[in-house]
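Lab notebook: predicted structure, single chain.

Context: the supervisor wants predicted structures on file for every construct in the current expression panel, including those that have not yet been purified. This is the next one on the list. No modifications to the sequence; it matches the entry in the shared construct table.
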Amino acid sequence: KDDIYAIGFVSDQFKVEPTAVLTSTIQHVDRLYVLATEKYMEGTLKGEIMSFDFKDNYITLGEYNPDVPKYFQKQLNNYIQKYKETGLLPNQY
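Prediction complete. Output recorded below exactly as produced.
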């Protein structure tokens, strides 16, 4: 009612408050547990900091709020796809 919007974090928050959440960045922690287990079993799990993001499909976007214009959804999805392919953010190309 106050025109305040949010972007969900960690899990898809759209269903929590569909009128306020524009989309969510979903962290697929379950996939990371599988990866860590596999690396451990293979003997390749090192004691190091590892980073994962959209490129690795460990982070994805959730459902879009209907208030987010279709052209903007498409543009954002294109930016994410280009990032996956190049590793560059929109301000870097």
